[in-house]
């Protein structure tokens, strides 16, 4: 039971942490929490270690590097190695359908293709050559994106829905976010690859979780473990329950159970993020616009300071054209189609 309690406690803490970050990132309390946490850490951790941690964090999250790309491939390789080494062989002995067992490998092939395309494809870098093209792509709302604004770093006029990425040091058309897992910006031209990468990754994790669960359930049913009894600490006979079964399976197949817990939690987290990404795609929003739109809304809150004569500026999504048109814009951006036709 020790492992099960610790694992559930770990999963609970991770989920609570993620939900807390998501909530705080959308409120004005975030800066206060970060500042308070930094002050507490400054009293606990030596200054030299703090500088080393800041340098490491800056390298990992504020410079282009392949650390998370390699970590992604290593974790994926470890999960698929365990699946191939144990689950695939056991399931063949239990006469599982071969098509059912090969599905995770088919999803892996597709995932690696879209992962590579997300890493190496041009997200929509704005240059002098295509600056005028991007300026005509979207309408300026004069709230979040204003006309005649220039990027002080690139010395280019900023098209609507664009943003300068400090990590890649370039302006990106229809900027969504910079993803450390693919070491690239996600913009107008590679958003479709990232969406399909996320979809196949979620599907592969969920498929392996289902196959592993079905294998363990089949094993319990064939061995009639659920009909057995055991003697508890007080010397009484007890019928085997679900908690005892999980503990028994972990002691018998520790790597399979641990992998099942990992891919199940990963499926839950990736599924949530996939739903959020699909929501943004269906409403023709980017992550950058969603975040900035909420900050614009917070300017009207009572605690927000603004000049008495200032008119409140309400952000409206002026780019949504309906579900199918919005999704079509992800998979066939107008500017990319125009440049291919021009070439």
TrEMBL record:
PROSITE patterns: DHHC. It is a multi-pass membrane protein. It is found in: Cell membrane; Endoplasmic reticulum membrane; Golgi apparatus membrane. Keywords: Acyltransferase, Cell membrane, Endoplasmic reticulum, Golgi apparatus, Lipoprotein, Membrane, Palmitate, Transferase, Transmembrane, Transmembrane helix. It holds the Pfam family DHHC. The chain crosses the membrane at residues 6-25, 59-80, 100-120, 194-222, 258-281. PANTHER family: PALMITOYLTRANSFERASE ZDHHC4, ZINC FINGER DHHC DOMAIN CONTAINING PROTEIN. This is Palmitoyltransferase. The lineage of its organism: Eukaryota, Metazoa, Chordata, Craniata, Vertebrata.
């Amino acid at each position: 039971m020790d492992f099960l309690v610790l694992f559930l406690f770990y999963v609970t803490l991770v989920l609570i942490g993620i939900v807390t970050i998501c909530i705080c990132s959308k409120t004005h309390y975030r800066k206060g929490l970060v500042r308070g946490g930094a002050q507490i850490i400054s009293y606990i951790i030596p200054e030299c270690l703090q500088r080393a941690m800041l340098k490491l964090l800056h390298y990992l999250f504020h410079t282009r590097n392949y650390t998370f790309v390699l970590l992604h491939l290593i974790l994926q390789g470890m999960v698929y190695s365990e699946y191939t080494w144990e689950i695939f062989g056991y399931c063949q002995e239990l006469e599982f359908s071969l098509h059912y067992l090969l599905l995770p490998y088919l999803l892996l092939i597709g995932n690696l293709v879209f992962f590579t395309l997300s890493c190496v494809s041009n997200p929509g870098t704005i240059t002098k050559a295509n600056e005028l093209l991007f300026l005509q792509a979207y309408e300026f709302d004069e709230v979040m994106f204003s006309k005649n604004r220039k990027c002080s770093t690139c010395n280019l006029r900023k098209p609507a829905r664009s943003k300068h990425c400090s990590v890649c040091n370039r302006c990106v058309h229809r900027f969504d976010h910079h993803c450390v897992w693919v070491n690239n910006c996600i913009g107008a031209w590679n958003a479709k690859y990232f969406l399909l990468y996320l979809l196949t990754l979620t599907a592969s994790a969920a498929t392996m979780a289902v196959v592993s669960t079905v294998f363990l359930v089949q094993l319990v049913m064939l061995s009639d473990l659920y009909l057995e009894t055991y003697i508890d600490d007080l010397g009484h006979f007890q019928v085997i329950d679900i908690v005892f079964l999980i503990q028994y399976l972990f002691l018998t197949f520790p790597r399979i159970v641990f992998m099942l817990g990992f891919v199940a939690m990963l499926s839950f987290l990736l599924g949530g993020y996939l739903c959020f990404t699909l929501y943004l795609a269906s409403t023709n929003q980017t992550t950058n616009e969603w975040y900035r739109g909420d900050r614009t809304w917070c300017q009207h809150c009572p605690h927000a300071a603004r000049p008495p004569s200032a008119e409140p500026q309400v952000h409206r999504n002026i780019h949504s054209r309906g579900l199918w048109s919005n999704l079509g814009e992800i998979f066939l951006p107008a500017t990319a189609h125009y440049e291919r036709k021009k070439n």
